[in-house]
Amino acid sequence: RLHGMGEALYNHVMDIYGVNVRIYAPVGSHKDLLPYLVRRLLENGANSSFVHRLVDARCPIDSLVQHPVDVLLSRPTLHNHLIPLPKDIFGADRKNSAGINIDIESEWTPFRDSVEAFKTHHWTAGPIVNGEVQSGDIFHVTAPYDRRESVGEVAFASSDLVAKAIDVAAQAFPGWSGTPAAERGACLQRLADLLEANTGELVALCHREAGKTIQDGIDEIREAVDFLRFYSHQAATEFAQGKSVVTFDGQSRTLSYQGRGVFACISPWNFPLAIFLGQVSAALAAGNTVVCKPAEQTSLIAFRAIQMMLEAGVPAGVIQFVPGRGAEVGSVLTSDERITGVAFTGSTETAQRINRTLAARDCDPVPFIAETGGQNAMIVDSTALPEQVVRDVVRSAFASAGQRCSALRVLFVQEDVADRIITLIKGAMAELSVGRPELHSTDVGPVIDKTAKDKLLTHIGALKNQAKMVAQASLSPDCSHGDFVLPTAFEIRGINVLQNENFGPILHIVRFKANELDQVIDQINQTGFGLTMGVHSRNERTYSHIERRARVGNCYINRDQVGAVVGVQPFGGQGLSGTGPKAGGPHYLYRFTKDVFTA
């Protein structure tokens, strides 16, 4: 029993049964002890607690001594019909993606076995034009965690093949655009089911080609599935029939949405399945045909996705797959005047280059849907709960080896609590396990390639000479042949020290005084980026003020700032971080269409 609580009751039990009872007492400082005691008082003071009911004279003895298991078994059902199962949380709209709890043995064991079946598998991939795999220059794929391990080969598309792919897609457009939205969506629904059925292989590919940890691989597939089901449902419900518009003269007109033509989808390596299929599925659901180019580093994953897409019933002419280097394939793709829209996720510099290419074409302007990077910040004031701050900072900065567009780059901590929070961050970083991504114990895997590694190590080396290193994680001994960058934290003077985004596990910490909050917000806004921001404060006025003034696409309050969920947290930035609209949101699909007004 807890010292000072329930003493009379326990003395009575000991007199009758002679059972020894351990007495325990919390030990700690005031700031640790008080919240604990308050929590216990709330628990024991609840109407349903035994202690509360014991002193209530109106509570029958029979009810008080009834065994909890007997109470449970006496109920007509153990399921509360008012609480939907996880797969049903979106109701009739769509089925939720299937999760896997890797901490429960009954789920972990079969999942692990399905992944290990592809532990030594060797994949081959190449361009797919009109449903046929084409040949090309070979790119050898090795594992980011061990460059001695061969994963597969990819044949890259030539410029002539890209032109042929656009030809095929353009010819297929009228038929696909005329296909009812529900039929287009049904193909994407079948693809979602195929992804879940092949989870083991896809997670293994995420490990071996992209260096993703177990949980990151599972989340990758779930997000891809959610995109497919979300966009297919939206298209089927909102594009199936035109919307009636009644004008001043009482006449009804029809506003309908149609595909634009051939869309180019250019996706990144950090979410090789989710963002890749998110772009492609939105374009297809809206009635466009697609020529897609994945990042050269993760073309195997994208190739398997396209194979499954064809298996799911998407016509061969509707989806064309042209892997290759961005400077070669991407430039040919975006400069072709038959391309009627571009969806792109990647660096700000590449987005600006694509924008200039599109503007230089001698044809009508086309939609350019871009989601780029950011100098993402988190602001922590003196009212924040330190333990929660540290948990969210570590996840936001170091999950996926910091290779998320939304990842935390700059942490602003109010001076009053900075020492304590920085001390806790040091301790949390010391516990991080950096190593092979397929291991259950690994928290942080490798970065994508040697180019990224060298760039990040150069930045760390420069900061060692001009900033204060706070902490650096350690590396597992069996990782000497991989592209690993250790999670590292520095204390710097201000955000203006950083000229570019450093896309990896590097956290920059800046102290600020309480009266400098508006200056901090201004400094963040002046970077020109505006993707994500985190705020930790228990003062509603403070976090509301920050949220109003910060020019960012996604603001997360008292939680981490990564892991946006399709249909629940639409994701996208502003300024140098993107053109909008937000992926996984209600307006994204419309950007892939043209509206037709019929009077």
What distinguishing features does this structure have?
single chain, 599 residues, alpha/beta, Aldehyde Dehydrogenase, Chain A, domain 1, Aldehyde Dehydrogenase, Chain A, domain 2, 3 domains, seven-stranded mixed sheet, five-stranded parallel sheet, 20 strands, L-glutamate gamma-semialdehyde dehydrogenase, FAD-linked_oxidoreductase-like, L-glutamate gamma-semialdehyde dehydrogenase activity
SSE arrangement:
Elements: H1 7-17, H2 30-44, H3 50-54, H4 61-65, H5 68-73, H6 105-116, E1 123-125, E2 128-129, E3 132-133, E4 137-143, E5 146-156, H7 159-177, H8 181-197, H9 199-210, H10 214-238, E6 243-246, E7 252-259, E8 262-266, H11 274-285, E9 289-293, H12 299-311, E10 319-321, H13 326-335, E11 339-345, H14 348-360, E12 368-371, E13 377-380, H15 386-398, E14 410-414, H16 415-430, H17 450-466, E15 468-472, E16 488-491, E17 506-512, H18 517-526, E18 532-536, H19 540-549, E19 554-557, E20 593-598
Parallel strand pairs: 1-5, 8-9, 8-11, 9-10, 11-12, 13-14, 13-18, 14-17, 16-17, 18-19
Antiparallel strand pairs: 2-3, 4-5, 6-7, 7-20, 15-16
Helix pairs in contact: 6-9, 7-13, 8-10, 8-12, 9-10, 10-11, 15-16
